[in-house]
């Protein structure tokens, strides 16, 4: 089945499609802690959650797209437990640390291979990543900040509904966090008017400041006087970043890591310390002079992006992120035409680890998943 068929499949059909998949068979063989999941293995729990979705009072009123998001969140939410499960040798207790983090990557890669659109794929991947957050809301020092942050990552209403199905999709009398705890997520989101939409900040800069301050204040309205605009390009090698810049930022200076590597005669496989240092120096020169510019590099990992974004923010730049993602087939074909061709194994590895930018990172986010059309 392709994505178009799967997106409209019934829960019964989705289960039938999943069961022969290697990742599903791994879930069926993965035990869970009896205190939390006395119903048994991960796949048994997953099927129960899928069926609980149809029992939600809100289910009939959801759009077909919203139902699709919830179905695939249920299917993938514990997909990484086989990779992360540990059994304590003394107590026998079973844990799966960071399974949601790894699950996000697995879900993203499966959905990419199925041909799922970028927008829908990221909705599902982020739901998988944060599916367990509502139950722990009362343990957070600033619960309101928690629901506001997530409103810019996903739909709080869908996260709440999934949490209900996840809690009900198990067979145990020993749950220590009752379903009532989940309602606090709904109440907190409704009180801040971000249950069905992202929280309405006073400005893009107020949002940016809130997400980049160690002690954020919802009532703080920062002064807006930007020194320039810094555009951070993100995308795999061959994604069309040069072409996008030529079309949309032709008047801006470009700091390109590929160009710097060529100047310094440094191969991409060699130590990149000097390349990054020179790129930083050139960015600082432009930032000091108040000149708007673009930084052209892969920047597919959040940790890598954050170093550049922090530098731009230090100089009061307005930050724009442009993320380009053509299909992997298109990208590999384009890579073959490049003079500095990147090994396909490297591109595939980068794709499997890619962390797509979010609105938490910047003032403006542009995502483009159109096919590459290089002139």
UniProtKB/TrEMBL annotation:
Keywords: Hydrolase, Nucleotide-binding. Residues 43-135 form the HD domain. Pfam families: AAA_33, HD. InterPro entries: HD/PDEase_dom, HD_domain, HDIG_dom, P-loop_NTPase, tRNA_CCA-adding_enzyme. Gene3D superfamilies: cca-adding enzyme, domain 2, P-loop containing nucleotide triphosphate hydrolases. PANTHER family: MULTIFUNCTIONAL CCA PROTEIN. This is Phosphohydrolase. NCBIfam families: HDIG (TIGR00277). GO terms for molecular function: hydrolase activity; nucleotide binding.
């Amino acid at each position: 089945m392709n994505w178009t068929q799967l997106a409209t499949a019934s829960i019964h059909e989705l289960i039938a499609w999943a069961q022969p998949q290697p990742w599903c068979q791994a879930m069926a063989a993965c035990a869970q802690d009896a205190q939390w999941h006395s119903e048994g293995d991960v796949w048994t729990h997953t099927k129960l959650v899928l069926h609980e979705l149809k029992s939600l009072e809100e289910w009939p009123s959801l759009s077909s797209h919203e139902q699709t998001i919830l179905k695939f969140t249920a299917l993938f939410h514990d997909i990484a437990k086989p990779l992360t499960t540990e059994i304590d040798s003394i107590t026998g207790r079973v844990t799966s640390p960071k399974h949601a983090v790894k699950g996000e990557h697995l879900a993203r890669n499966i959905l990419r291979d199925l041909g799922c659109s970028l927008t829908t794929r990221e909705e599902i991947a982020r739901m998988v990543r944060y599916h367990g957050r509502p139950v722990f809301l009362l343990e957070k020092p600033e619960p309101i900040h928690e629901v506001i942050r997530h409103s810019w990552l996903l739909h709080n209403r869908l996260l709440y509904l999934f949490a209900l199905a996840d809690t009900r999709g198990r067979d145990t009398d020993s749950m220590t966090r009752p379903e009532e705890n989940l309602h606090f997520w709904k109440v907190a989101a409704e009180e801040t008017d971000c249950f069905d939409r992202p929280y309405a900040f006073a400005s893009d800069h107020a949002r940016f400041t809130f997400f980049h301050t160690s002690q954020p204040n919802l009532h703080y309205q920062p002064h807006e006087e930007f020194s320039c605009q810094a555009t951070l390009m993100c995308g795999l090698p061959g994604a069309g970043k040069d072409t996008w810049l030529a079309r949309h930022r032709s008047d801006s200076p470009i700091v390109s890591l590929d160009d710097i590597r060529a100047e310094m005669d440094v191969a991409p496989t060699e130590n990149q310390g000097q390349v990054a240092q020179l790129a930083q120096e050139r960015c600082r020169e432009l930032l000091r002079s108040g000149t708007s510019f673009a930084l052209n590099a892969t920047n597919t990992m959040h940790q890598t992006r954050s170093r550049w974004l922090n530098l731009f923010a230090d100089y009061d730049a307005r930050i724009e992120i442009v993320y380009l993602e053509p299909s992997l087939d298109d990208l590999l074909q384009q890579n073959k035409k490049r003079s500095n061709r990147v090994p396909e194994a490297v591109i595939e590895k980068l794709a499997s680890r890619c962390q797509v930018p979010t609105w938490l990172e910047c003032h403006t986010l542009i995502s483009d998943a159109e096919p590459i059309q290089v002139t």
